[in-house]
Amino acid sequence: MSGLTTQANTFVNTKLPIGLQCEHLINPLGIDVQNPRLSWMIPDDRQGARQTAYRIIVGKDSMEVVKKRGACWDSGKSLSDSSLVSYHGKDLEPFTKYFWLVEVWDQYGKPAMPSKVSGFETGMMKKENWKGSWISDGNDINKREAPYFRKVFQPSKKIKSARAYIAVAGLYELYLNGNKVGNHRLDPMYTRFDKRNLYVSYDVTAQLQNGKNAIGVLLGNGWYNHQSIAVWNFDKAPWRGRPVFCLNLRITYSDGTTEVITSGEDWKTSNSPIVLNNIYTAEHYDARLEQPNWNRINFDDSKWAKVTLRKAPSDQIVSQAMQPIRNVEEIPAKSVKKFNDSTYVFDLGRNIAGVTKIRVNGEAGTVIRLKHGERLYPDGRVDLSNIDVYYRPKDNSDPFQTDIVTLSGKGTLEFMPKFNYKGFQYVEVTSSKPVSLTQESITGYFMHSDVAATGKISSSNPLIDRLWWATNNSYLSNLMGYPTDCPQREKNGWTGDGHFAVETGLFNFDGITIYEKWLADHRDEQRSDGVLPDIIPTGGWGYGTANGTDWTSTIAIIPWNIYLFYGDSKLLADSYGSIKKYVDYVGKISPLGLTTYGRGDWVPVKSPSSLEYTSSVYYYVDVVILAKAARMFGKQADYSTYSKLAEKIRQAINDKYFNREKCIYASGVQTELSMALQWGIVPDEFKTKLAEQLAKRVEADGMHLDVGVLGAKAILNALSDNGQAETAYRLAAQDTYPSWGWWIVNGATTLYENWDIKAARDISLNHMMFGEIGGWLFKGLGGIHPDEQYPGFKNVLLRPNFVSGLAYFEAEHDGPFGKIVSSWKRSGNSVIYAVTVPANSRATITFPFINGEKVYENNKPLPGKIEVDAGQYEFIIKNK
Ligand code: BGC
User: Fold this and answer.
1) CATH number of 36's domain
2) By alpha-carbon position, which residue is closest to atom 3 of ligand 1?
3) Which of 593, 809, 614, 583 is nearest to 712 (CA)?
4) Maximum Cα–Cα distance across the chain
């Protein structure tokens, strides 16, 4: 059926706006900005559905807001199609719940029903609003036990509502009357603790009771007090200290008055049964030290010690306005192998980041060790040799990725670490005395920042589908409030790995809040001369010599991609000064436009690429982003300076590295050819030819990859964007060494760090640095691209490639306007191409002309490129 005819539609749109978010979160608490971003979607599937105006109403009284009376802000009817608008009403007050709704008018000027009321609540807003003291147990940083804290209080009147605000350097679990507050894990997220600390807000109304109440806090070390030693000197971080927290429990009584229960000198502290906790290695628990009901009112704490008051760890105490880490997926053990009555190996059937829970019964004093790894030795026992290589233990009391549990003999113990996570598939359980375990004794929990899924791929090639799934598994395994390189060996926020993965991440997950937080970490880490460290956050490691453009370009590339995917320029604006400082630094050390400031094409198959060439390309990328941002923000002088600089760099690269006769870059290896295409270095008139050269190079390399991380980011796009989609697909679907598929056919459920599965080093089995393929599937096969002119998929660029190796392919992405679908299947000699363009957005469809195929619609030829409004369309493409 043709979707190209527009029918005048007369019925009134009854589809109210949905998906209301504030600061990209649903009904958030702890909003501390004066102009929070409000956004919505229109679920209107009529063809051409469009918003022509909106009106936002914000107030403190939800009933008033429903009546469209906005005491705080009434935007008035604004003739705009924007669905991402910053609040511009009365000054927001701290600790206040605001309600809002939005009304929209459609393409005929008709109003839709107003949205349901949504809300957001402000938090502290100002540091001065914190009350009470930061407290710790006053122990030495080397003390291993995790401390408990408690306090009992009695509210003076009847409670109407209550909020807990907890700021922590280290990790925490908060309890009220014996129950854990919330379901976050490893809170708060890692920041440079001496520059910025995060606090978390909870609605705890339902957890308080009339009469006495007990508050309990358990603190873990996290990255704040890193006790174990690894090559990156985590233990030498300048901020290192015994974990410390500040709690404000703010109670609003039914008479409207408030009272704040705070952390302070009247609290008490004691050791907990957690006798060791390292986020990097493991957690040890001695059940004999349990103190039942330690967090309930009637517990006798007379033997507990006094607390120590401390000053705030930094000047910035900032709300953690982001998706938290959770135990997102529960994974039962797939099998267990019993070696003898004190040795078992469990297999989860897939590699994850997270923890295990064990349920076990045994005599008091029995010591159980749970060793987590990604590989097995030939004898079936767990092998850590691919991931413990950078760990530098002083003794054997803290083995890598090995929880140690001592039983109390009082019934079944359920243990799951609170302050650690690991990367693993297998768990070897050994016990000092015989224990009886079954497959159900162990459960795995996949932990990661709990971002919503926004992408889906399905195709006629199971290898491609599996690869997409494995890529997402690695992306999520490496999303812990900041992107990491791997969940086991390092847990480092390697900058390069972060930006290589950003498009895959954003096609598949709603990651904006994590990236906004990570770029704030960047700003905290940037030296005054503009230099950024390799790993962010860092306790000091990473300001060495290889922290150059190919890695630390995160500062420009991440905000730019957030802009492209969300149409939200806030992060780019917030990062502008840092990008400029960074670019200026590179300019200072590279006055001629070429730079060797970088690491190079890391973990290549065989051929190295020129370091000066690859680093200069990334320098160019940053300067281009800076120039574009300058233009966007009306900074004319910067725009002129940096667009000229960009041209100078591009020229310098082409002068030195482009051989026009041969049409190759540098020595002509895959990475070098790919990067010139991917990053806009090659002069336009040579693009097609260069892509042909690249395709030939790939063929000469046996239709296999010969790239490291920089080439892996570029090669598939370089081919499919320039007429060589067939070769791109053959590389993507290749299943012999070296290829992504080679990992999959060898059983991978995540992406690896090395093309060579048997390599001697760099062989983590859960790395995201080669993960661009997951994003490429959306772009190179589905053809879904953001449009820089109309970012946030306001206009969707659709350029599908109907590659001959596939019978069908479907890509779906939930963008800011709703679900975009690009799907094609072969039918006889034709390809049927179906697309969905969500309301209030448009698309530009470019049909591929491969082998003389033309695009026909109802037997009439279509132009190569067409513009469509929101709606669903189907096209039949065939030879005539
Ligand atoms: C990490 C990488 C990182 C690289 C840089 C490795 O140890 O795991 O992913 O980007 O170092 O050299």
Assistant:
1) 2.60.40.10
2) 494
3) 614
4) 90
Q: Which atom of ligand 1 is nearest to the CA of 767?
A: 9
Closest CA to 468 of 675, 733, 707: 733
For the record, the structure tokens of 151 come out as: 């306090």
Query: What whole-number distance in Å separates Cα of residue 68 and Cα of residue 180?
Result: 38
Q: Which of 122, 147, 167 is the last residue of a domain?
A: 122
CA 485 – ligand 1 centroid, Å: 7
829: confidence class by pLDDT, cuts 50, 70, 90: confident
Which atom of ligand 1 is nearest the CA belonging to 497? 10
* Total tally of structural domains belonging to the chain: 5
Band of pLDDT at residue 3, cut at 50, 70 and 90 = very low
Residues 608 and 750 in one domain: yes
Q: Residue 393: which domain range?
A: 326-448
Q: Assign 5 a pLDDT band (cuts: 50, 70, 90).
A: very low
AA identity, residue 57: I
Q: Mutate which of 280, 478, 485, 614 to test ligand 1's pocket (most atoms within 8 Å of Cβ)? A: 485
- Same domain as 721, residue 858: no
Same domain flag for 313 and 333? no
439 has a pLDDT exceeding 60: yes
Q: Is residue 500 part of a domain?
A: no
Q: Are residues 213 and 104 in the same domain?
A: no
Return the residue whose CA atom lies nearest to atom 8 of ligand 1: 485
Q: Distance between alpha carbon 625 and the CA centroid of its chain, in Å?
A: 21
What angle is formed at CA 257 by the lines to CA 256 and CA 258, rounded to 5 degrees?
120
For residue 720, the SS3 value is helix
Q: Is 774 a domain residue?
A: no
Distance 441 CA to ligand 1 centre (A): 35
Say if residue 412's pLDDT is above 50.
Answer: yes
- Among the listed residues 179, 196, 197, the one whose alpha carbon sits nearest the alpha carbon of residue 187: 197
DSSP state of 591: T
Q: Is the pLDDT of residue 2 over 80?
A: no
Contact 833, 824 (CB under 8 A): yes
Name the more confident of 849 and 610: 610
What separation in Å is there between the alpha carbon of 779 and the centre of ligand 1? 26
Label residue 848 by pLDDT band (50, 70, 90): confident
Atom of ligand 1 nearest to the CA of 764: 8
Q: For residue 851, is pLDDT > 80?
A: no
Residue 177 sits in the same domain as residue 261: yes
> What is the arithmetic mean of pLDDT over 671-690?
98
What residues line ligand 1, using a CB cutoff of 6 Å?
485-486, 490, 494, 496-497, 599, 602, 767, 769
Domain closes at, from 420, 448, 476: 448
Going by C-beta distance under 8 Å and a sequence separation of 6 or more, which residues neighbour residue 747?
Answer: none
Q: What pLDDT score does 856 carry?
A: 63
Per DSSP, the three-state class of 280 is coil
Q: Using one digit for the tens of pLDDT, what is the confidence trace for 214-253? A: 999 999 999 999 999 999 999 999 999 999 999 999 999 9
